[in-house]
Amino acid sequence: MASSMPSTVMISSRMDSICRPCLAAKSGLRYCRPRAAAATAQFSSTNKLKLEPLLIGGVISRQQPRASFKAETYEANQGETAPPSSAEPAAPMNRLKIGIYFVTWWSLNVVFNIYNKKVLNAYPFPWLTSTLSLLTGSTLMFLSWATGLVAPPDTDVEFWKSLFPVALAHTIGHVAATVSMSKVAVSFTHIIKSSEPAFSVVIQRLFLGEHFSLPVYLSLIPIVGGCGLAALTELNFNMTGFVGAMVSNIAFVFRNIFSKKGMKAGKAVGGLNYYACLSIMSLVLLTPFALVVEPPQQWISGWNVAVQNVGPQLFWWVMAQSVFYHLYNQVSYMSLDEISPLTFSIGNTMKRVSVIVSSIIIFRTPIQPINAVGAAIAVLGTFFYSQAKQ
Question: Are 197 and 223 in contact (CB under 8 A)?
Answer without folding.
Answer: yes
